[in-house]
User: What shape does this take?
Amino acid sequence: MIKKPFFGLKKQGFEYEALKGDKVELQKISTPESLTFLIERKNGDGLDIFPKQGESVKAGEKIVLGGEGAYAVSSAAGLISKVSPFPGDFGQRYAAVTVKTGDEQAEDETFASLSGDLNMRNVIDYFAYLPGKPDVKALADSERPISTIVVLGTDADLLMTTNQYVVQHETDALNTGVSFLKQVSGVAHVVIALPQYLMKKAGAIGGASGVEIRVVDTAYPSASPYFIAKNVLGRETPAGQSFEDIGVFFIKAEAVAAIGKAVISGRPPVKKIVGLVKKDNSRVMVETLIGTPLEDIFQACGVTVNDRDRIIIGGPLTGSAVFDLRQPVLPDTDSIMIQDAGDISPVSDYPCINCGECVRICPTKTPVNMLVRFCEAGQYEDAADLYDLYSCIECGLCSFVCVSRMPVFQYIRLAKYELEKIKEAELSAEESDE
Amino acid sequence: MSNQRKFTVSHAPFWHNGSKISERSYHTIFAALPAVLFGVFQYGAPALAVVALSMGSAIFWELAFTRLARRPDTIGDGNAALIGLIFAMLLPAATPWWVVITGTFFAVIIGKQIYGGIGGNPFNPAVLAMAILMISWKRYFDFDTALVAYDFNFDMRYPLAALKFFGVSSVWSFNAADLLMGKQIGGIGSTFGLGLILGGIYLMIRGFIRWEIVISFIVGVLLTSLIFQQAAPDTYAGPAIHLFSGYTLIAAFFLVPEDSSSPVNFVPMIIYGLAGGLMTVLIRNQGAYVDGVIFAVLIINLINPLLDKIRPKALGRVG
Ligand code: SF4
Ligand code: SF4
Assistant: This one.
């Protein structure tokens, strides 16, 4: 862990991790006994899935939930043994579908048998659970048309390298994916965002297909979509709006390569590239089926975890801690981190002492010292109106430096979540009035 | 099996830079030591007694209050001890014990705890307490009478009082080097300029105080005194006297940049510091008080919430 420098005047900060070496070996994790897939439950969705509990699924087959057709894709053949509710952070609700894998290797042919050219509908129907989890619905949203697609060859948090790996090692699939996306979406402007050291790959990427290659700074959080939009595209996202509102669609390199592979082979990929960061911060890159429980990965990689250790999905600044080793790898799980109990600094219940460290480090110039007071007091509307709650891009740096060790970042995310709930309640109240 | 193990589940981020409040307090106390030890050395046992009583009683008030209010004990964060120390540094060595204890009561309870404790205080607690005492028991804070029992081998007049009552010609005999080396009377921890500067530089480079405030306060004092001097050299003393005597240096490093009562954005910090320097000299030159620091600090504390509204445009902010 990085400590405050002795000369505290020096600006603190982090650099993104670069994936060293031209050829990185993936450690392949074999098919586990059971796989678990999470499907987000929207309002009113129960736990009814198709195929049903007790029925068998093929590798690559969709498991569909509820009215809006949310789905997961089973990454191996097997029997659906269990469906249970699963809570996410901030009130999200999921259905957790467990598949017992067997010896049988049946593969689903539905995607391969689609006749004719693939269209946007097929993309929505088959690519939502791909590794890298592309937000395919946003790409197809006719109310908010996309004018620029940005392929992220960068990773979202520190110590993560999945997308960099894909740029280095899966160039062909990436190119196919880019061409396909251009063609199916009709968006002509595609930008690939890369860290400087990957620019040597630039010639091989996009090549003839005429994409724009742009460099992203290595200082965290330059690779945040907000900063890529602002610094690379020159388009600032107004606070509270989404990237689709300004016509930009972000997609991870891993997802684009997965789309490329699906187009080439007729089989949407079901394997995920995950960085496993051990207690000593050393890292192995593993390739594993989506849905693999963390404990199988730990076992295969010789990782032991003890009481009071912390298991983190995602990066050290923005990830989320899990309480159960049966937690599965999800389509967007780029990194798993194990932190020794001794390396965990406790949070405190102290109030803000107004030291200003958060204001110094905040990349978005959010007045964190004031914001946190309002968030802590539950005055969320003032937090948004007066103290730029929605300018925060959720990088986590403010909590990292907080002298009071307040959960600043958590307060901010909670405030956004609560406001969202209030808004939704107001909307539904209006609807019922009509 | 594995799922019986209990993992630590908490919120991102999962790294912290290791800083904490107690570190900030204790390093500030450490940085104040050269000036305090010099004062104790100069004034002997009474000064030591004042310092000890002030720190001890400040801690006591904090403990008593948190117990009564059923809040968690906070004396471990070192902030009460720090307030006690800073307060003692402002006092004459001969301050009666009950004045010290009353002072720390005002500082810790009225200055900090009733606002909800650390981080909530709109005024610097030690300064607020000083202001109340200076108004209530003026005579204990007249350094010339308070320290009449002492006799050192340097000019025993309080420089700012001499300046105020006998005019600028009366302070020509003070030279900057002597003042810097503590050859002047004043508060226990306020006279050894060199020690204060060393401690202050330490705090600035370690990032425990906001250097922008310190520098702009000093610049404010220098500029204002220079302007006065240029306008009427026979009436007003120059920057050196203003900088090296009275509470100027202790204010620059230990009073003005107090976390809770000062701004954190760049432009506000600069205005805040400059205004503090300006008010200090203005009160000294024009006001009723010998030293303007205490009231100047209160005034800038008062405008701090307004100042901190001036801030850079946050990402994506419209309008
Ligand atoms: S998480 Fe904190 S530091 Fe990062 S943008 Fe938000 S307020 Fe600023
Ligand atoms: S870093 Fe923490 S204590 Fe310091 S101003 Fe920010 S929120 Fe307050």
Q: What stands out?
A: The mean pLDDT of chain A is 90. The longest strand of chain A covers residues 78-87. The radius of gyration of chain A is 22 Å. Chain A touches chain B through 80 residues (CB under 8 Å).
